[in-house]
From TrEMBL:
TM ranges: none
DNA-binding region: 34-53
Keywords on record: DNA-binding
Protein name (database record): TetR family transcriptional regulator
Coiled-coil annotated residue ranges, if any: none
Length: 201
């Protein structure tokens, strides 16, 4: 029985494949990138790729999972040290604005993926919906803790502000978009009771 490949080497190959796929999928789109391009740039063989990912779909789902985990880490960091909910929301908003202003920003990876996988039953589309539901529930919970009397509506408002900023951030001046987004969030937080807003949730 031959010796198996060292775990560190296989883990390194998988990490390199995923890092390469993440970079190219985000900057150029998912459907436009083939397996040959990924294995070439990751400097691995096709056999190595298929040893870690049975097919491109599994690689795409791992890409989305990695983006999801990065977002969760970002949100967890914003809530660190037991800071008040309002400060956590502002910290999350500042990190989003920072992403918009970062080099190579190409919009929201999840909205981009949803556009490429419009079928709501596709696993990639389902991954997008799961991520968005988590984010909505997280923001809504923070708004409730911050004293907003209509946190569900405010949470949806926050997510729409975020979506608009992420979409516009790769089309217009990202600094201006980030500033406008933060201004919108601050306005939402200045009206915790929903004063003057239409009735309903």
């Amino acid at each position: 029985m031959g010796r198996s490949e060292p775990l560190s080497r296989t883990s390194e190959a998988r990490s390199r494949l995923l890092a390469t796929a993440t970079r190219i999928f985000y900057t150029e789109g998912i459907h436009s990138v083939g397996i040959d391009r990924i294995v070439t740039e990751a400097q691995v063989t096709r056999a190595t790729l298929y040893r870690h990912f049975p097919g491109k779909e599994e690689l795409v789902l791992s890409y989305l999972d990695g983006i999801d985990q990065a977002a969760r880490d970002q949100v967890n960091k914003a809530q660190a040290d037991g800071r008040p909910a309002r400060e956590s929301l502002l910290a999350i908003s500042r990190s989003i604005a920072g992403d918009i202003g970062s080099p190579g920003f190409r919009g929201c990876a999840f909205l981009n993926a949803a556009a490429e996988y419009p079928d709501p039953t596709h696993p990639a589309h389902q991954a997008v919906l799961a991520h968005r539901q988590w984010f909505l529930e997280t923001v809504t919970g923070l708004l409730e803790r911050a004293g907003h009397t209509r946190p569900e509506r405010a949470g949806r408002h926050f997510v729409m502000l975020r979506d608009g900023a992420m979409a516009a951030g790769c089309l217009f001046d990202p600094d201006l978009i980030g500033e406008t987004f933060l201004h919108g969030v601050e306005g939402l937080l200045r009206d915790p009771a929903g004063a003057g807003a239409p009735q309903g949730k």
